[in-house]
Design goal:
By secondary structure, this protein is of the alpha+beta class. Helices cover 30% and strands 21% of the residues. Bound molecules: N-oxalylglycine and nickel (II) ion.
Length: 352
């Protein structure tokens, strides 16, 4: 009798990947990547301890590194950020345990609407002519200003809340540095975006080994909502960043945080710092897990470009939109490049 692979609709990708006879991916997962990705030996690195140092020279070096990273790549590797290695390991381990829970437990969080504060599933993406399934399982929850977290595993809520609190401090320092680089008052973003109530979305992505990684995708090319996204992982690489029209692997030193610029930093900076396109690729060998913290303005803030920058530029390049509406439109549209941000772009008036 021919071996049977269970129907993909009944399975999370984790279980599908464990089917003993799986030699090729079911056709619904087929996604042809446009290129494989190259290594770069010049990925920007920012030393956080220099940014918060009392030594003015050290601080200016860090500010310059942040400025170049935001202008050139929209991405940097953050080192010496002060978040304990034990906490980073604990959040990866606790997130892994979530994916090991019985199916019924995970299904409790199957999304019914875009505004559910906790969502779990596998996800789809729209390609030019059809909908495809993604080679990953995920769990997402809103963790600030209101904190939501699955009940199990029990210690998940403790580590996620610790990690989110410590990350907020790092975030605020980075954003103050970015304001200085934009020649704005250091606290101007704190005020305009009401960062005391900044929105944080925690997402754990689980990418099991894939028999045909070149024919599948973990997450297709997209940009993130928010200001800066923080990503850590279990040591298995998979995040790629687009730079000058080419894809690059992001290999990172242990205990570092991968930071990328997101849509609302592009909006706030009136287009100076572009939100970077990125994707997650999969491999045949090892399970990869990433823990992502999307950091944005407060949910109710209607985000527009900085007034001061609009004054300097003579016009706003993006229209206003309430942040949480943007997030929830994006979560319900699935992945589609830079779609949402495109809708907010204001065309220049045509003058003879
Ligand atoms: C995301 C994302 C990439 C990764 O969750 O938005 O881009 O490497 N993840 O998991
Ligand atoms: Ni992303």
């Amino acid at each position: 009798m021919a071996p049977t692979v269970p129907s993909v609709n009944d399975l999370c990708v984790k279980d599908l990947a464990q089917s003993p006879d799986l030699k090729s991916i079911p056709s619904q997962f087929t996604f042809i990547n446009d290129s494989k990705g190259s290594n770069s030996d010049s990925l920007p690195v920012v030393d956080f301890s220099m940014l918060v140092s009392d030594n003015a020279d050290q601080r200016s070096i860090a500010l310059l590194d942040i400025r170049k990273a935001c202008e050139d790549w929209g991405f940097f590797v953050l080192i010496n950020h002060g978040i304990p290695e034990s906490l980073m390991k604990a959040i990866i381990d606790a997130s892994l345990e979530f994916f090991d829970l019985p199916e019924e437990e995970k299904r409790r969080y199957e999304a019914k609407s875009a505004s559910d504060p906790i969502k779990a599933g596998s996800g789809t993406a729209n390609t030019a002519n059809n909908k495809i399934l993604l080679w990953r399982d995920f769990m997402k929850s809103y963790v600030h200003p209101n904190f939501y977290c699955p009940e199990k595993p029990q210690h998940l809520r403790y580590v996620v809340s610790e990690y989110s609190e410590k990350s907020r401090w790092v975030l605020r320092k980075l954003l103050q540095g970015i304001c200085e680089n934009l020649e704005l008052e250091a606290g101007s973003m704190d005020e305009a975006m009401n960062l005391d109530s900044c929105f944080q979305l925690y997402a754990a992505n689980f990418y099991p080994p894939c028999p045909q990684p070149d024919l599948a995708i973990g997450i297709p090319p997209h940009t993130d909502h928010g200001l800066l996204t923080f990503l850590i992982h279990n040591g298995v690489a998979g995040l790629q960043i687009e730079h000058n029209g080419e894809w690059f692997h992001t290999n990172s030193p242990k205990n570092s945080i991968l930071v990328n610029t997101a849509d609302h930093l592009e909006i706030f900076s009136n287009g100076r710092y572009k939100s970077v396109k990125h994707r997650a690729v999969v491999n045949t060998e090892a399970t990869r897990i990433s823990v992502v913290l999307a950091n944005g303005p407060a949910p109710d803030v209607v985000v527009s470009p900085s007034e001061e920058l609009v004054k300097r530029d003579g016009r706003a390049l993006y229209g206003p939109m309430k942040y949480i509406e943007y997030v929830e439109t994006m979560l319900s549209n699935q992945y589609g490049g830079k779609g949402n941000l495109e809708c907010l772009k204001i065309q220049a008036d045509y003058h003879e």
